[in-house]
Amino acid sequence: MSHFGELLSLAVAFFWTGSALAFEYAGKRIGSLMVNILRLIIGGIMLGGLLWIIRGNPLPAGADTETWAWMLLSGLVGFVFGDMCLFHSYLIITSRFSQLIMTLAPPTAAVFGFLILGEHMRPMGIIAMIVTLLGIGMAIFSRGGESKKTGIKLNLPLKGVLLAFGGAIGQGLGIVLSKKGMESYAVSNNIIANQTDSSIYIPFAATQIRIIAGIVGFILVILFMRQAHRLRPALNDKRAMASVTIGSFCGPFAGVSLSLMAVRYTETGIASTIMALVPIIIIIPSMLLFKQKITVKEVTGAIICVIGVALFFIE
After folding, report:
1. Whole-angstrom Cα distance, residue 6 to residue 242?
2. Is the pTM for the entire model greater than 0.85?
3. Is 93 helix (H, G, I), strand (E, B) or coil?
4. Residue 63 CA to chain centroid, in angstroms?
5. Residues 100-107: what's their mean pLDDT?
6. CA dihedral 47, 53, 59, 64 (to 10 degrees)
7. At what angle do helices 83-101 and 123-140 cross, to 10 degrees?
8. How many C-alpha atoms does 187 have within 13 Å on its Cβ side?
9. pLDDT(202) > 60
10. Rounded to the nearest 5°, which phi and psi values hold at 132?
11. 141 has which bridge partners?
12. Closest Cα to residue 273, out of 251, 306, 305?
């Protein structure tokens, strides 16, 4: 199908928008930590069912030790560290601003790709990162404060901003580790690019390994923080669980898996740019669902961020 990868990337942007909004709502009711563990369990069950239908096994088939190592590490970095930061930032600065800062994930992935995989880093990439940062800065900073003094004022709590940056770093590094793991997965199964069935299967199976790592990681975090007593009340909150279920389908199940599939059917730059539309797509739903006030400056900043992501992949 023509432009199949681009269509997948656009679908991912809408799925991630729905996931961010659903998890923000659920997090306000039961806390970000409970949302994280529950959405991974639900997402893992969904993926397990899909893998069972495709290959008759709810667990990833044919993954060797190297594949498991890379994907488990990716899950710990992306799902545990990255999403723990991101989901907590939702409660402090809202999913709209968090997703805006998350536009730094593609440039971050490129930096880690250069450091870990030896991928080429071009001067345009540095320019694109600066443009993206300018867009973020336009949205979250303003000139002067209540006293109208000159200078720059951060319009959001610093803690929330730093957590969102942590989420971008976790996602960027997680993508690079996932790429390494999927390459190993393909080699271990003698898979070539034009084998459609296997090309579709690998992203979902790889995501399942990442989810397993995330579940184990969050169990350890919950036990360490002595938060296990909050699990039963969270399960009894029907509205929160409905939102977690919707977010789990949109995020760990459909969004993450289709994002890995998209980069197999189109160029990484094109896919990443389209997926980076979330800060723009999320504006209207945020206004309708959470009654958030949107300024022209914030919309402009979001558009500049997407332009920055696009510039990053110009040859």
Report:
1. 30
2. yes
3. helix
4. 23
5. 88
6. -110
7. 90
8. 10
9. yes
10. -60, -45
11. 154
12. 306
